[in-house]
């Protein structure tokens, strides 16, 4: 049985962009409040009072448009993946499409699949363009991740996102997709019920049965279907709930950590959930050379992984300079204390 997901016509990334909020809180500041002295990351990005997953998505989408150099009206789909949408009932995609000038001849939808909602939207965009239903489609992954005060998720739950505009492979695409693959099971490792403000996690499910099982199987199957090995890839980007997990999965697959570190940003911006894998790929595209091959594997609790093989093209050399780079946002920072962080994240219910 054929497992590889590959469209009828080859498609690639016409434009890409990321956005990370300016505010940061150090893990040691959170630890000071809760009496914790060891931390899974160094610091994380915090959205400002006027920022949410929607505004992050708009900024990333605008950067993607700058690099795509196409009219917004040519984009026939704007699909937004997030688990922290500002509205419980009202689409986010419509607001983003309006903000970038893509309405009214456009399809919009909000995707949910925990942290792989963004790559789920990307998978759909590849199929939409690959089937020739549209010339261009945009996929966005963005989150302002939630963590209960004092819970270990509070140390890693960050904010950020990235957007990719997909089009037919050409000299204008900065990279193209060789193929993709999705691996999904019903594994209850992480969830948030309706009306609950913070997510819960099943500790014994989060590691081996969830994250590692799905990412490793997705990556191995993709490589087998494409007849590739880890040696064929110059970079690898995995979903990054912390720093340890992506490096561990790389070791399992036999991938040197030097191929993972360029896209591993969780240690300095936190886990951006639906944005994590896509922001990592954006950071790699900012430095990759034509001909480089990128292995990208997301993970979403519940649980599933999307794996992609991405090959960088010549257009990257020119287009990467048309918008702020990922590390420009990462390096732009202003530190806040726990009180301002709690206010910004609305942890105090008035």
From TrEMBL:
<keyword id="KW-0414">Isoprene biosynthesis</keyword>
<keyword id="KW-0012">Acyltransferase</keyword>
<feature type="active site" description="Proton donor/acceptor">
    <location>
        <position position="239"/>
    </location>
</feature>
<keyword id="KW-0808">Transferase</keyword>
<dbReference type="GO" id="GO:0019287">
    <property type="term" value="P:isopentenyl diphosphate biosynthetic process, mevalonate pathway"/>
</dbReference>
<feature type="domain" description="Beta-ketoacyl-[acyl-carrier-protein] synthase III C-terminal">
    <location>
        <begin position="224"/>
        <end position="304"/>
    </location>
</feature>
<feature type="binding site">
    <location>
        <position position="239"/>
    </location>
    <ligand>
        <name>(3S)-3-hydroxy-3-methylglutaryl-CoA</name>
    </ligand>
</feature>
<feature type="binding site">
    <location>
        <position position="36"/>
    </location>
    <ligand>
        <name>(3S)-3-hydroxy-3-methylglutaryl-CoA</name>
    </ligand>
</feature>
<dbReference type="GO" id="GO:0004421">
    <property type="term" value="F:hydroxymethylglutaryl-CoA synthase activity"/>
</dbReference>
<comment type="subunit">
    <text>Interacts with acetoacetyl-CoA thiolase that catalyzes the precedent step in the pathway and with a DUF35 protein. The acetoacetyl-CoA thiolase/HMG-CoA synthase complex channels the intermediate via a fused CoA-binding site, which allows for efficient coupling of the endergonic thiolase reaction with the exergonic HMGCS reaction.</text>
</comment>
<feature type="binding site">
    <location>
        <position position="115"/>
    </location>
    <ligand>
        <name>(3S)-3-hydroxy-3-methylglutaryl-CoA</name>
    </ligand>
</feature>
<feature type="binding site">
    <location>
        <position position="206"/>
    </location>
    <ligand>
        <name>(3S)-3-hydroxy-3-methylglutaryl-CoA</name>
    </ligand>
</feature>
<feature type="binding site">
    <location>
        <position position="244"/>
    </location>
    <ligand>
        <name>CoA</name>
    </ligand>
</feature>
<feature type="binding site">
    <location>
        <position position="156"/>
    </location>
    <ligand>
        <name>(3S)-3-hydroxy-3-methylglutaryl-CoA</name>
    </ligand>
</feature>
<feature type="binding site">
    <location>
        <position position="301"/>
    </location>
    <ligand>
        <name>(3S)-3-hydroxy-3-methylglutaryl-CoA</name>
    </ligand>
</feature>
<feature type="binding site">
    <location>
        <position position="271"/>
    </location>
    <ligand>
        <name>(3S)-3-hydroxy-3-methylglutaryl-CoA</name>
    </ligand>
</feature>
<feature type="active site" description="Proton donor/acceptor">
    <location>
        <position position="83"/>
    </location>
</feature>
<protein>
    <recommendedName>
        <fullName>Hydroxymethylglutaryl-CoA synthase</fullName>
        <ecNumber>2.3.3.10</ecNumber>
    </recommendedName>
</protein>
<comment type="pathway">
    <text>Metabolic intermediate biosynthesis; (R)-mevalonate biosynthesis; (R)-mevalonate from acetyl-CoA: step 2/3.</text>
</comment>
<dbReference type="GO" id="GO:0003985">
    <property type="term" value="F:acetyl-CoA C-acetyltransferase activity"/>
</dbReference>
<comment type="similarity">
    <text>Belongs to the thiolase-like superfamily. Archaeal HMG-CoA synthase family.</text>
</comment>
<dbReference type="InterPro" id="IPR004656">
    <property type="entry name" value="HMG_CoA_Synthase"/>
</dbReference>
<dbReference type="GO" id="GO:0010142">
    <property type="term" value="P:farnesyl diphosphate biosynthetic process, mevalonate pathway"/>
</dbReference>
<dbReference type="Pfam" id="PF08541">
    <property type="entry name" value="ACP_syn_III_C"/>
</dbReference>
<feature type="binding site">
    <location>
        <position position="204"/>
    </location>
    <ligand>
        <name>CoA</name>
    </ligand>
</feature>
<comment type="function">
    <text>Catalyzes the condensation of acetyl-CoA with acetoacetyl-CoA to form 3-hydroxy-3-methylglutaryl-CoA (HMG-CoA). Functions in the mevalonate (MVA) pathway leading to isopentenyl diphosphate (IPP), a key precursor for the biosynthesis of isoprenoid compounds that are building blocks of archaeal membrane lipids.</text>
</comment>
<dbReference type="InterPro" id="IPR016039">
    <property type="entry name" value="Thiolase-like"/>
</dbReference>
<feature type="active site" description="Acyl-thioester intermediate">
    <location>
        <position position="115"/>
    </location>
</feature>
<dbReference type="InterPro" id="IPR013747">
    <property type="entry name" value="ACP_syn_III_C"/>
</dbReference>
């Amino acid at each position: 049985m054929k497992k590889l997901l590959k469209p009828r016509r080859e498609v690639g990334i016409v434009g890409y962009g990321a956005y990370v909020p300016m505010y940061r809180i150090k893990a040691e500041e959170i630890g000071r409040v809760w009496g914790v002295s060891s931390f899974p990351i160094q610091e994380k990005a915090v959205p400002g009072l006027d920022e949410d997953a929607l505004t992050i998505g708009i900024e990333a989408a605008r950067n993607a448009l700058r690099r795509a150099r196409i009219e917004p009206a040519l984009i026939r789909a704007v699909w937004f993946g997030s688990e922290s949408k500002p509205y419980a009932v009202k689409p986010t995609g419509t607001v983003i499409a309006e903000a970038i000038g893509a309405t009214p001849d456009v399809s919009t939808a909000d995707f949910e699949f925990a942290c792989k909602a963004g790559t789920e939207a990307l998978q759909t965009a590849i199929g939409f363009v690959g089937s020739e239903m549209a010339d261009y489609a945009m996929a966005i992954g963005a989150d302002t991740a939630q963590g209960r005060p004092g819970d270990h998720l509070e140390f890693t739950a960050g904010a950020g996102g990235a957007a990719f505009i997909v089009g037919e492979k050409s000299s204008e695409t900065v990279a193209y997709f060789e193929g993709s693959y999705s691996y999904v099971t019903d594994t209850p490792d992480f969830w948030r019920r309706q009306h609950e403000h913070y997510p819960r996690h099943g500790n014994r499910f989060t590691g081996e049965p969830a994250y590692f099982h799905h990412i490793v199987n997705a990556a191995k199957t993709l490589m087998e279907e494409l007849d590739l090995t880890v040696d064929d890839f110059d970079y690898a980007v995995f979903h990054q709930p912390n720093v340890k997990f992506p490096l561990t999965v790389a070791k399992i697959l036999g991938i040197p950590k030097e191929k993972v570190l360029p896209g591993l940003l969780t240690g300095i911006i936190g886990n951006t959930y639906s944005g994590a894998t896509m922001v990592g790929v954006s950071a790699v595209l900012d430095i990759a050379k034509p001909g480089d091959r990128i292995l990208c594997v997301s993970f979403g609790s519940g649980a599933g992984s999307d794996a992609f093989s991405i090959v960088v093209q010549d257009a990257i050399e020119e287009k990467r300079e048309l918008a702020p780079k990922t590390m420009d946002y990462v390096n732009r920072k202003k530190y806040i204390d726990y009180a301002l962080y709690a206010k910004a994240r609305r942890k105090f219910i008035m």
